[in-house]
Structure formats: C-alpha cells, structure tokens
Design brief:
Elements: H1 2-33, H2 51-58, E1 64-70, H3 81-95, E2 100-105, H4 110-118, E3 124-130, E4 133-139, E5 141-147, E6 150-154, H5 163-175, E7 179-184, H6 197-202, E8 206-211, E9 223-227, H7 235-246, E10 251-254, E11 258-261, E12 269-272, H8 278-281, E13 286-288, E14 292-295, E15 298-304, E16 310-319, H9 325-329, E17 347-349, E18 356-363, E19 368-371, E20 376-377, E21 396-403, E22 431-436, H10 460-472, H11 476-482, H12 495-509, H13 513-566
Parallel strand pairs: 1-2, 7-8, 7-9, 9-10, 10-22
Antiparallel strand pairs: 1-5, 3-4, 5-6, 11-12, 12-20, 13-17, 14-19, 15-16, 18-21, 21-22
Helix pairs in contact: 2-3, 10-11, 12-13
Length: 569
C-alpha cells in the first residue's frame, strides 16, 4: 500500500513539475513577444519613464538611433553612470515599439574615438587613484541621437539627474518645430544676451526671441514674457500687449514693481519703480505693490561677523514657500519642493472678471511682513536686526489667471482721441496669464551655473522658471518629467546647530572672544551629534532591513521544520 502511495506521489510531483515548466516556458514566450510590465514604487517614478516620455517614444514614425559612447572602467562615481544610462535608454526602446534603436560603444580604439568626436561627444579628463597615486585618464560618457537627417548630442553626462528631461527634450527638438516665445525688450529689463542667458539656453525647445512692444506683436507666439521692467511702458505698448492677449496669447509678467541692485556700493538694495503695468493687470483683478516681502520662513545667507567669522543667518527677503496640496497640483508648482521667490513684491488680488478663474499659487507665511521706502536695504544681518512692519502677512506672491479675459483697453475706433490699435473687447478664446511679484528667479544671478560641457543642472529654481513657461505655452508633459528631476528637499538643520550659530553671532558682536570660542565648540558638538544621527540612520537602513528580513526567514524556516515533525503518512 505504501508503495502505491509513493508511486502516486511521484506521478503527481512529475505532473506538477511539467505543468510549472510549461507555465514558465509560456511566460518566457509571452515576455519575448510583448513588452514586459515594469513597476516603480519610488515617489517620483525615478526609475521609469514619465507618461509624456512614453507617449513621445510611442509616437515616432521613423527610426531614432541613440548611440551611447561610454569608456569602460571609468573611476567612481562615473563607473555606475553607464548602467543607469542603459536602464533609462532601455525604457525608451521598450516604449517605442521598435522605433528607437539603442547602441552602446566603448571607444577603445582610434576609429571608435573618431566616431564619437564626429557625433559631438568629446573625451573628458577623470582623476583616478591607484596605489596611492593620482592619475588623469581620458574617457567618454556622452550620447548622440539621430532622427532622419537631424541629430542632437549630449556631449557629457555628468550624472543621470535630469537625464530623462534632457533626452525627451532632445527628441522633441528632433521630431518637431520649436514653438516661438517672445521676451519684451527694453524698459531696463534683463535681455537675452545679458541677464537671461541661462534661461534662454534652458528653453531649448522654444525659439526665444526679443519682442518690440511698440509694434504689433505676432499672435503666433506661444507665450509673451515681461521680465523685470524698470522703466514705464507707454499706453500704446500696454495696448499692444493687451491686443496680443485678446487674440488668444498667453502672458507672463514677472516683477515690475521694484528694481533690485545686488552689486550696490552699500550692499544689496531695492527701490520702487513705476512700470505702469497696473493699467493692464488691474481690470483682470491683480495689482503689483511696490514693496518687498520678508518672511521668517526663509533661506539663509552668509554674513561676516565683527571678528571675521562667516556664518549662515536667516535671510527674510528670500521667502521659502510652503505650498498646500491644491497649489502643488497646479502645473506651475507641480511637485516643487519648497521653492523660493527672492525679492518678491506682494500682489493685491481682487475679484476676477466673470467667467475667469483666478488662482493664488504662492503665499508668504503668517510670519511675514513688508519692507518699503525709496531705498530698501537688503544686506544680510543679525536676525535680531530685522524689524517687522505693522503690515503683516500672509501676502499673495504668484497668481494664475485662466479664461476669457475682457480687454483692459477696449476703446472705440475712428473717433476723436481713440487709439488706432484695434483690440477685441473679449479674448477670442481661453487665455493664460501668470503674474509673479519678482523676476529674480529667472535671471542669471539666481540660475544654476552652466557647466563648460553638458546641460545646466536642474534644481527647484530652474524647474519653477521652466514650469511657468511650459504652462503658458501649454506643454504639460515636460512639467511632469521635470518634476522627477529636481533635487530632493534639503535636510532640516537641527535647532541646536542654529542656536549655536546665533550664539556665535551675539558673542562676536559683543567682542567676547571667549564666548565665541565657547559657542564655536557648542556648534561643533551639535554638528557632530547631527552627523552621528545621520550615520546611525544610514546603517539602520543598510543593515537593519536585511536583518529583519533574515530574522523573518529564520522564523519561517523554524515554523516549517516544526510542521514537518508533526506530519504523518
């Protein structure tokens, strides 16, 4: 009887094995025939393509060739870059249904190196430490894209942060025409050749051009930007801008109430300016006020104390925005982590015209106030020297307007005193207007520096600037991609470190050298404690989680072993 049971058990085991083998073979065949599913559980989908990138890859009508030139065995941290680039490019190829062909080349001979240079990928020097000696080796780490008779090159990949945005932007450039975006010139504003050079280079998907507002503005512009004017607009210029909006154009107004001078002889300062933009914005429910918002929730700036010590102090003229869930869902602010608005003027927001949606995208905190006067001093100072005014926050700092706006300058034609600029009384379609109380975050002084080779590193300031332009130009795909590439929020500095820095400042002002030394020791101890805590969390993540998994496995093994002991045939 036991022999029959054993034979039956053996037969059932064989049948089960054959079934499992067949299922595995079938799954492999299906996996080879169809795109395999991918699951990315990271918060921003860091290891998978955004929907916009997938949609773009799937829409290609012709073959796109991507050649990645990577030298093998590059020194850290670049030795891991190739694997990350391979994974990302494989996602593009999988999404394209065969239209994207990826090829990796190791330029290890003269012919391949010549091919890399012909494609625009140049060698880069790397420092390599071997046997306690530092050597410099040349290597390649760039990507070339070719579509029909067009090509684009990423000469150097510094790291993979923002690489999806760069590649998707390059593909967009290859397959379509660039949309025109106008920047109003004159009026003391920064220009595309001085002050906005980084912004222009970052807007590679757009044909950015200077616009003369004294002439009729091209209605085919995807967006029109007014950036930091310091001199007044004429009535005709304002009517031309209004005419452009009424014809369906999108308008972005950045600053125009105060002019900031960061290189003044007495330190950074600001002064009120009369741009006359209130005549355009007033009928739409928004006005710029000639003040600067200061906020206790702010960035920090370096300040040199009486004894020559340089410490970071709170800097209220650069508010750090705390956005609510509704604001974070708007395309301009989509997933931005604590963006900053330097030297921003408050906005006076009234009632929106009928049928128009007016959304406040950013406000200062309740611990904010305004600074005003003919000259507004902005130099960093001891936190106790900032004086809160009676005008307390919160203040509206950024407003989006969406809908069929009425003309701000509707006037009869061909009557005495009437203008010759013909403007529809109401916008011909839904239009978008973005009003921000500052232009500083668009200007070169606050943009990330452009490296000698490669792309500008994406951060929250640049992401905010590009989001604004993309929303005005109605390109939401890039906003979602860019949201994955901005830097993670900075770690909060412990109160003990900040308190020690304040003590250093106070002792330095009093000339108490012993107090300074004591405060510096406290600061050092607080930083060491902070570093120890970060190290503990790092080891907990590195060893603690595997230990818990191993402990669970041991528990399950003991359970199964005990269960086997109780089994009876």
């Amino acid at each position: 009887m036991s022999s029959k049971v054993q034979k039956r058990a053996a037969s059932e085991s064989l049948i089960f094995l054959l079934i499992v083998t067949g299922i595995l073979i079938l799954l492999n065949v299906l996996g080879a025939s169809f795109r395999s599913p991918r699951i990315d559980l990271t918060r921003n989908g860091m290891f998978s393509l955004a929907e916009g990138s997938e949609r773009l890859a799937a829409s290609l009508d012709d073959r796109l060739e991507i050649t990645a030139y990577f030298t093998e065995n590059l020194p850290p941290p670049f030795n891991a870059t190739e694997r990350q680039v391979r994974d990302l490019l494989s996602e593009y190829a999988a999404a394209s249904d065969g239209q994207i062909v990826v090829r990796f080349v190791n330029p290890d001979d003269e012919a391949k190196q010549q091919a890399a240079r012909s494609d625009g990928v140049q060698p880069v020097a790397h420092q390599k430490i071997e046997e306690d000696q530092v050597a410099v080796v040349e290597g390649y780490r760039g990507v070339a894209l070719r579509y029909l008779d067009q090509s684009r090159t990423i000469p150097v990949i510094q790291d993979t942060t923002g690489l999806e945005y760069t590649i998707t932007s390059a593909i967009k450039e290859l397959v379509g025409e660039r949309s025109p975006v106008g920047v109003v010139g004159g009026h003391g504003s920064p220009s595309l050749t001085q002050g906005l050079t980084t912004l222009q280079s970052a807007l590679s998907l757009y044909d950015v051009r200077e616009v003369d507002a004294t002439q009729e503005i091209d209605p085919n512009l995807a967006a029109l930007l007014v950036i930091g004017p310091k001199e007044p607009f004429s009535d005709d210029e304002l009517r031309r801008i209004d005419q452009y909006v009424m014809r369906g154009g999108s308008l972005g107004i950045f600053g125009g109430a105060v002019a900031v001078d960061l290189a003044g002889q007495t330190g950074p300062s600001a002064r009120p300016v009369g741009s006359r933009l209130e005549g355009l914005l007033g009928p739409w429910g928004v006005e710029l006020e000639s003040e600067i918002v200061a906020d206790a929730q702010c960035s920090r700036a370096p300040m040199r104390g009486p004894l020559g010590l340089q410490v970071l102090v709170p800097y209220p003229p650069i508010p750090v925005l705390q956005l609510d869930d509704e604001q974070l869902q708007h395309p301009v602010m989509f997933r931005l982590a604590s963006p900053m608005l330097p030297f921003v003027a408050p906005l006076k927001v009234g009632d929106a015209p009928d049928g128009v949606e007016l959304s406040v995208l950013a406000r200062s905190s309740e611990d904010s106030w305004t600074m005003s006067g003919q000259t507004i001093a902005l130099e960093p100072r001891d936190p106790r020297d900032w004086r809160m005014s009676a005008k307390a926050g919160p203040f509206d700092l950024m407003v989006a307007i969406d809908g069929k706006l009425p003309s701000a300058y509707a006037a009869p034609i061909n009557e005495e005193g009437a203008t010759a600029i013909q403007t529809p009384p109401v916008a011909e379609g839904d239009v978008r207007v973005l009003v921000v109380g500052t232009s500083s975050f668009l200007e070169d002084s606050f943009m990330p520096p452009r490296p000698p080779q490669g792309e500008v590193q994406m951060n929250a300031a640049l992401a905010l600037a590009l989001n604004a332009v993309d929303w005005l130009a109605a390109d939401s795909d890039l906003i979602a991609i860019r949201a994955k590439t901005i830097e993670e929020p900075a770690l909060d500095i412990p109160d003990s470190v900040l308190a020690a820095e304040d003590t250093v400042l106070a002792a330095a002002e009093e000339g108490d050298e012993a107090g300074v030394e004591s405060a510096l020791e406290e600061r050092k101890a607080a930083i060491e404690s902070w570093n120890a805590k970060k190290l503990a969390y790092r080891w907990l993540n590195t060893l603690g989680i595997p230990f818990v998994v191993a402990l669970f496995g041991l528990f399950r093994w003991r359970q199964r072993a005990n269960k086997k002991k109780t089994l009876k045939l």
